[in-house]
Amino acid sequence: xxxxxxxxxxxxxxxxxxxxxxxxxxxxxxxxxxxxxxxxxxxxxxxxxxxxxxxxxxxxxxxxxxxxxxxxxxxxxxxxxxxxxxxxxxxxxxxxxxxxxxxxxxxxxxxxxxxxxxxxxxxxxxxxxxxxxxxxxxxxxxxxxxxxxxxxxxxxxxxxxxxxxxxxxxxxxxxxxxxxxxxxxxxxxxxxxxxxxxxxxxxxxxxxxxxxxxxxxxxxxxxxxxxxxxxxxxxxxxxxxxxxxxxxxxxxxxxxxxxxxxxxxxxxxxxxxxxxxxxxxxxxxxxxxxxxxxxxxxxxxx
Length: 302
What we know:
Main location: membrane
Binding site for [4Fe-4S] cluster 2: 48, 161, 164, 176
Cofactor: [4Fe-4S] cluster
InterPro entries: 4Fe4S_Fe-S-bd, 4Fe4S_Fe_S_CS, FDH_Electron_Transfer_Unit, Formate_DH_bsu_Proteobacteria, Formate_DH_C_sf, Formate_DH_Fe-S_su, Formate_DH_TM
Helix content: 25-40%
Protein name: Formate dehydrogenase, beta subunit
């Protein structure tokens, strides 16, 4: 379970007015997942469960390699497998993707959350859930363009990958990166990961993958989990990775225009009230009203 680390400074909190400036701006971090190096061994999935003390009950085999079948409150990272028939190259490709929170620079979950402090963003870019403040409303699920958070039926709290914020606070990398036997997962500053990704993309292009590229979607101002893809022009080939993820317009409206319109309306009502008081003075009960009230009371008592 995630908790606020003293070594990680906050820059944003859900349902809180204004940003909280970090005491010291940290270097932005990122996890780079190179799909071309992944062998689908699930060591990352197991390492995540081990480090976070999660246990998932075995599920029924439905003829796919994904196990469990989907992300859930006890599975924060999941290997997804896709067979892709590349008709242009006349070959069958095995596309394997590690699924989990993307830690968006502009996180839709945080924007949608109505509970103060239930979702936070650290100055290094990591987006974390604070279970103690979660009310289990599920708005974070609606706000996420990657369909990542899951609500537990046991405690009605939302859960997702924390990017091992507790390990990062102590100067270590995420457990999944530590466990990966092929170095398909690397962790470091975002600038370094982008530079590494560019080297890998050039290598893939020289090997015949002309459309190889880095997945760092601009629709959410970039992410702190990025992919190197063989087919960067078609991200959805990789088990439905969104081609152009964006925060829902409903969330943007609710937390944007509607919020400020409501504040403007309340401000206008306050100004009208003050103006009425200054012009007409406080409300007073006249002698006639007092007399009528006494008659009404005497009538009821009789």
